[in-house]
């Protein structure tokens, strides 16, 4: 839950989004690691052009440093 909050905070702080919806939460174990996945549906009702992969990656840069044990954050567009 703390990671969700941190992601949302960064995206709102950098004015990338104005609305966020989290869905399709899942967790499983693979190769002795706990894997968590979720989908973020991002919207900016004021400026839709702000929701780009470049802006999202820039806003989330360095986000995982305070979260010990989170080794990888993958962003996939759909």
Describe this structure in words.
The chain is α+β, with helices and mostly antiparallel strands and 78 residues long. The chain has 2 helices and 2 strands; from the N terminus they run αββα. Strands 1-2 form a two-stranded antiparallel ribbon. A hairpin with a 2-residue loop joins β1 and β2. The two termini are 23 Å apart.
β-sheet strand percentage: 25-35%
Tell me the structural class. Answer: alpha+beta
Shape: globular
- SSE topology string: HEEH
Structural key phrases:
single chain, 78 residues, two-stranded antiparallel ribbon, globular
Outline:
With 78 residues, the protein is of the alpha+beta class. The protein is 26% helix and 29% strand.
Give the arrangement of secondary structure elements:
Elements: H1 2-13, E1 19-30, E2 33-43, H2 53-60
